[in-house]
Automatic annotation (TrEMBL):
CDD domains found in the cross-reference section: HTH_XRE
Cross-referenced InterPro entries: Cro/C1-type_HTH, DUF5753, Lambda_DNA-bd_dom_sf
Identification of the protein by name: Helix-turn-helix domain-containing protein
Pfam families linked: DUF5753, HTH_31
An example molecular function term from Gene Ontology annotations: DNA binding
Organism: Streptomyces roseirectus
Start and end residues of each HTH cro/C1-type domain: 20-73
Length: 275
């Protein structure tokens, strides 16, 4: 039988699936047999083991009872839920670290890969004050972001295309001093030989291709991936037809957005209004 082998390092969902399969195999049970003991279908077990379906706390409790594993699987699910990272994002990071081309579109906030440490810290602190994340989760995000930014300094460097909504550069985050340094960082980014920086102006209106942030990756084998997220969830998409549509929309957005020269001029003008 062909079995989909997951990499437990790829995501927390994958790690759970690998562990569930290992425990089931140790007992010599089929997926249907485990499903009968848990009160669900073997198809459901298969979907969790292959990472196609996320385990819920209820599923983990039932699996622990059936397998006699105390609260081992429940603790794995809690660690997923307690993380500040959206589902799907850890998997995306694995691919981002080896992508040869990265295309980003962002709304309201400077993309993480371009943030200064002070800007990133101010953003995380705001979420802590609102109760959206804990202080430890904020530190997790900042440490992860620093690692992502460091990975871009590899050789050869990936080609990075960034289109930001105008709100990203007009919204002051962390006060004027922090924002001034952030604008300087954007100007420095635009000067790099492997980058393209564009602003999607407000007057683009309905011609703007995306209403939510999106990340598009081209991998060394020239295959493409898409990652999109809302405030509640993230989703990695590999299906070629879907990704191709998103890539086409991104190219259309680049055509409609301001040129890099005009974008840099806007940022420089905004920079004059900060200390």
């Amino acid at each position: 039988m062909n079995r989909k082998e997951l990499d437990p390092e790829e995501s927390q969902r994958a790690a759970f699936g690998v562990e569930l399969r290992r425990l089931r195999d140790e007992r010599g049970w089929t997926q249907d047999e485990l499903g009968m003991r848990m009160g669900c279908s073997g198809t459901h077990i298969s979907a969790v083991e292959t990472g196609r379906r996320s385990p819920t706390p209820r599923f983990a409790r039932s699996a622990d009872r059936a397998l006699g594993t105390g609260d081992r699987l429940q603790r794995m699910v809690r660690s997923v839920r307690e993380s500040s990272l959206l589902e799907g994002f850890p998997e995306y990071l694995v691919h981002e670290a080896r992508a040869v081309e990265i295309r980003l579109f962002e709304l309201g906030i400077v993309p993480g890969l371009l943030q200064t440490p002070e800007y990133a810290a101010a953003t995380a602190a705001g979420e802590v004050r609102r109760g959206a994340i804990t202080e430890s989760q904020a530190q997790e995000r900042l440490a992860l972001l620093a690692g992502r930014q460091a990975s871009l300094r590899r050789t050869p460097a990936p080609l990075i295309h960034v289109v930001m909504d105008e709100s990203c550069v007009r919204r002051i985050v962390g006060g004027k001093d922090v924002m001034a340094a952030q604008l300087d960082q954007l100007l420095a980014f635009a000067e790099l030989p492997s980058t393209v920086l564009q602003i999607a102006p407000y007057d683009l209106g309905e011609r703007r291709a995306f209403d939510l942030p999106i990340n598009l990756l081209t991998l060394p084998d020239r295959s493409d991936l898409a990652y999109a997220e809302s405030s509640l969830q993230g989703r990695m998409e590999r299906e070629a037809r879907f990704v191709r549509l998103k890539m086409t929309a991104y190219h259309q957005l680049q055509v409609e957005a301001m040129s890099q020269t005009a974008s840099v001029a806007m940022i420089e003008e905004l920079r004059k209004g900060t200390p």
